[in-house]
Amino acid sequence: MREHIHLQKDRFLEELKDFLRIPSISSLSEHREDVRKGADWVVNALQEIGMENVNILETNGHPIVYGDWLHAQGKPTVLIYGHYDVQPADPLELWESEPFNPTIREGKIYARGATDDKGQLFIHIKALELLMAEHGSLPVNVKFCIEGEEEIASPSLAPFIHENAEKLSADAVLISDTSFIEKGQPAICTSLRGALAMTVNVRTANTDLQSGSYGGGVPNAIHSLVHILDSLHDEGGRITVENFYVGVPTLTDQLRKEVAAIPFNEEHTKEELGLDHLYGEEGFTFKERTGIRPTLEINGVTGGFQGEGVKTIVPSEASAKISCRLVGMQDPQTIYERIKQHLEKHKQEGSHITTETLIQAKPVSLNSQEAMLQKAADAYEKVYGVRPMFPKEGGSIPIVEVFGRVLDTPVVLMGFGLPSENLHAPNEHFYIDNFTKGIETVCEYLYKL
Amino acid sequence: MREHIHLQKDRFLEELKDFLRIPSISSLSEHREDVRKGADWVVNALQEIGMENVNILETNGHPIVYGDWLHAQGKPTVLIYGHYDVQPADPLELWESEPFNPTIREGKIYARGATDDKGQLFIHIKALELLMAEHGSLPVNVKFCIEGEEEIASPSLAPFIHENAEKLSADAVLISDTSFIEKGQPAICTSLRGALAMTVNVRTANTDLQSGSYGGGVPNAIHSLVHILDSLHDEGGRITVENFYVGVPTLTDQLRKEVAAIPFNEEHTKEELGLDHLYGEEGFTFKERTGIRPTLEINGVTGGFQGEGVKTIVPSEASAKISCRLVGMQDPQTIYERIKQHLEKHKQEGSHITTETLIQAKPVSLNSQEAMLQKAADAYEKVYGVRPMFPKEGGSIPIVEVFGRVLDTPVVLMGFGLPSENLHAPNEHFYIDNFTKGIETVCEYLYKL
Predict the structure, then answer these.
(1) φ, ψ at B117 (rounded to 5°)
(2) Residue A276 domain flag
(3) Does a structural domain hold residue B270?
(4) Shortest CA distance to A66 belongs to which of A80, A76, A81, A56?
(5) pLDDT tier at A349 (50, 70, 90 boundaries)?
(6) Within an 8 Å CB–CB cutoff, is residue A181 touching chain B?
(7) pLDDT at residue A254, rounded to an integer
(8) Do A297 and B312 touch (CB under 8 A)?
């Protein structure tokens, strides 16, 4: 199989480049048509490798692409999930090559979506193409369910899974949208944090006011906003929202050991990120803070005059975007309510606060001893010569919890990314070596099932 | 004179509309050519009313327009100052009519620059036109010095005044760029606060990071920024920068009485601004806070993801614009250094701060008993039937201090604006009644000299 992959690698990369050229940014309405182009591209790719019943399924948002091949009688069924949408690309000026003009440099392919998730999704498509080419059939039954709203927290896919549980039923859900521990050390993620994303808007007067006439005498929306935002953490980096930590698992010695077992080089990380210091909740390690502890991060802030030069106003409006990572029994809606209460309690006189929730996803935990995960580990070991670790990841893939719960099926997070691949950031890229080895690993896995 | 004004009012307003159509925004480099058009317009207007030696004087920034008429032998010389540049117009969506499409509604002319300062400057041009038309000469010698950088704190005019002190020498500097107390109650401002405007930029990692992988474990530039911004005031609204209040005059009973004498209707102000509460430094009244106390306001803030939807990043950069109003002996450069020290002291680990100063202007105080001011008061009284008050204004006109000091001349701040005219904000306007009465008042004043 390795030689087949090697022989066709250049063609595969050209096809992947085509996919990466589509700016299928699901969060921006001006890219609506591009997102649909992404769906069409997937439809075509699935049809070309012999998938059947390939369809675009309309939703209230961006479409879902379905396709299957169900002729392996008596064999297990694998549901392959991935997403063809991508994050926004800004700030554009920090990209070394254009985000939607895929470029290969030093064994890596650079483009928005290279690792998250077009490159990783494409691994499965090419693995099935090779298996079909070799045998004219597949060793297992396969269903594809590819969405275009992962980066906006899968609002259409969750109800779709509920309504189509029968159609999607499988013995395992296979997802490649996570990362290795580091180059050469594969990982099957067994824990994902939940997520809450929200906006907060502060309003004071009915218009911006001249600071010469009103400054010092009226509420300033930015003062009020920075006050409530700063109040969300204490000096030790702990989140101060009342009852925020209810439902967070106690850190046992066993759990600390498991987390500590995942290698982490602090000096290397600081150097890579250009940081003098790491920072976070006191009493926890970097891996604990980013993997199993809940967080609250301000993702963006805007208000008042931001142009060139000076405008001496007292701004009347300011807003921020906030997101939380949640763990254990933390419920996103409950956390949202608690944050709202906190903001109201800390707001300054004369300011009005409005909030909106944009994403809600529950935390998820998977069992590493499950056969479907152990067989995936065998496949990795065969290709990479190293048995994967089973880390608890800090990220969120909101739909994983829904797949596991609604389909009552193990979810296998067979990732081929690297932590250093700048996902959601400028200069996102994907190691081509993991792309080709990924195809090989997926083939191995499907044989083993 | 009143009839002459009335007869030509419509033409005057059409001419003013022409002036207001020029988007001469001095702070935005893309409007550089428009600012020059503003200068050309002033040159033409001065030539048309018979001014001599009318010239565009180049500077490192936007040009200064000079013109004079010096044939009133043995009579005093008045230097008329004004500015043809305007503030930026954003946020555009809050304007009821376009900022550079002047529109008359209910006796007011709406446009950016209507009151600040094109409308007020135009009063002088039209007053001189009428005097020339009536007598073929003027009762005093007149010099015009009109700049295009007032809204960016007059960086070129200050050195220009130093270099041309002889050319600009006068018995009074006459400026209309301030406001009445309220409709029907004129004012000659006798105190202007100084100003400091600066930017602060916070940088953490070398790129934005995915909050799933790094959130909670690395410094967040917005967290760091809101922390230092919130640290600038205490809960009582007092500025916490060390030694900030050094040089601020002690509030004597006499001064409190003077300030309290200026009428102020708190309920009316709150209603007008749509505010439940006013806000400010504890222990001081609104008029004290906005007139004679120093202030520190955050004018704008920006950082991270501000687009539609969600981008769960840990932002690596965030910045704010800050401006102070200064009083008494407060020196802008010293205050800037003190704020920088405060920011460094309060910054979070792993964040780097850079600052830049954009405006520096010293506070200024004028003597209300000076003959040149008392004659101006007489002119107002004759036209409006009310003697003007002599308030201490909260705003800053940086060049006033330079004119007074370098030319050693009384400065007469003969304003015709109203506090409610939204200067520096959407829907800026100018009362046409004060425009016509202003022309009459200026004519009266020049006769009285």
Answers:
(1) -135, 10
(2) no
(3) no
(4) A56
(5) confident
(6) no
(7) 87
(8) yes
Give the mean pLDDT of A72-77.
Answer: 96
The answer to whether A56 contacts chain B (CB < 8 Å) is no
Query: Computed from CA positions of residues A265, A266, A269, A271, in that sequence, does the dihedral angle turn out positive or negative?
Result: negative
Judging contacts by C-beta atoms under 8 Å, the chain B residues touching residue A153 are 310
Q: What is the pLDDT of residues B62-107, one digit of tens each?
A: 999 999 999 999 999 999 999 999 999 988 999 999 999 999 999 9
Task: Tell me whether residues A207 and B280 touch, CB distance under 8 A.
Answer: no
Taking an 8 Å cut-off on Cβ atoms, the answer to whether A350 and B278 are in contact is yes
What CATH number should be reported for the domain holding residue A307?
3.30.70.360
User: What residues contact residue A62 under an 8 Å CB cut-off, 6+ apart?
Assistant: A26, A32, A35, A36, A39, A85, A147, A148, A149, A156
Domain final position from B338, B359, B380: B359
Same domain, A406 and A299: no
Nearest CA in chain A to B181: A213
* Nearest CB to B211; choose among A91, A299, A307: A299
Domain-located, residue A421? yes
Tell me the C-alpha to C-alpha distance, in Å, between residue B31 and each of A195, A304, A383, B58, B154.
44, 21, 62, 17, 17
- If asked whether residues A203 and A346 sit together in one domain, one would say yes
Mutating which of B193, B270, B275 best tests the A interface, going by the most A Cβ atoms within 10 A?
Answer: B275
Q: How many domains does chain A have?
A: 2
Indicate if A322 and A375 belong to the same structural domain. no
Give the closest of B28, B293, B424 to A309, CB-based.
B28
Q: Both A99 and A227 in a single domain?
A: no
SS (H, E, C) A381-420: HHHHCCCCECCECCCCCHHHHHHHHHHCCCEEEECCECCC
pLDDT digits (tens, 9 = 90+) for A235-255: 999 999 999 999 999 889 988
Q: What is the CATH number of the domain that holds B132?
A: 3.40.630.10
Size of interface A-B (CB pairs under 8 A): 346
When scoring B93, B116, B297 by the number of chain A Cβ atoms within 10 A, the one with the most, hence best to mutate, is B297
**Residue that finishes a domain, picked among A361, A377, A407:** A361
What are the chain B neighbours of A426 within 8 Å (beta carbons)?
Answer: 207-208
* Residue-range definition of the domain harbouring residue A424: 2-192+363-448
Do A9 and A156 lie in one domain? The reply is yes
CA closest to B276 among chain A residues: A350
In a domain, B289, yes or no: no
| Nearest Cα residue to A110 out of A81, A84, A91, A89 | A89
Domain co-membership, B56 together with B153: yes
